[in-house]
Amino acid sequence: MSTPTETPSTPSRSRKGPTRSEVSKAAILEAARDEMAENGWRGFSVDSVAKRASASKQTIYRWWPSIGAMCVDAALALIPDAPDGGRDPQERITALIIPLEAAARTGHGHAVLRVALLAAADDKDAGEVWRAWVGRDIRQPLRMLLAELAAKRVIRRDFELDDVLEQLLGPIFHRLTISRAPVKEGFCAEQATAFLRTYAQF
């Protein structure tokens, strides 16, 4: 009596490359950046974004809780990862904030970041997205770095973390939103140097 032959199962094919939804989302964010650069926050049009990206407004509203949150996401996608700061305190502090400088100096990055900052100030959801990024990518690693520098007596221990954040980030935010001026190369390094000069351990 013959026994049934087992048919080998066909291995499932692993999906390679971005999914359809990922491609669509990337197109929407790219269209949002174009709209941000051309028309700013006050003149921003979700209809224009949908048309540029060949997407529906329903899709946009399904993926983002607000238009402001989408604008912040579009801007954050321009910001590169922080580079290795090496061992020098000034270089290590600079490394945490220089991604903002890099984004601002790339194409229309300064205009895109300006809109993101205005959206974060105006819109609750956008503000939460922006603060979450600052907290994860800048505030938390900065807290650990400053604690290390204080323990090594490079800086004083009497710093307030949020005050340091304002000292480091305030000038670039002011330049983008109030001065509406380009961010020069080395701008963030200057802020790091000024901070270390203020809090140097004597």
TrEMBL record:
Protein name according to UniProt: TetR family transcriptional regulator
Keywords on record: DNA-binding, Transcription, Transcription regulation
Domain of life according to the entry: Bacteria
Region feature (Disordered): 1-23
DNA-binding region: 45-64
InterPro entries recorded: Homeodomain-like_sf, HTH-type_TetR-like_transc_reg, HTH_TetR, Tet_transcr_reg_TetR-rel_C_sf, TetR_C
Biased composition (Low complexity): 1-12
Molecular functions per Gene Ontology: DNA-binding transcription factor activity; transcription cis-regulatory region binding
Keyword Transcription: yes
Ranges for domain HTH tetR-type: 22-82
Pfam families xref list: TetR_C_11, TetR_N
PROSITE patterns: HTH_TETR_2
Record-linked Gene3D superfamilies: Homeodomain-like, Tetracycline Repressor, domain 2
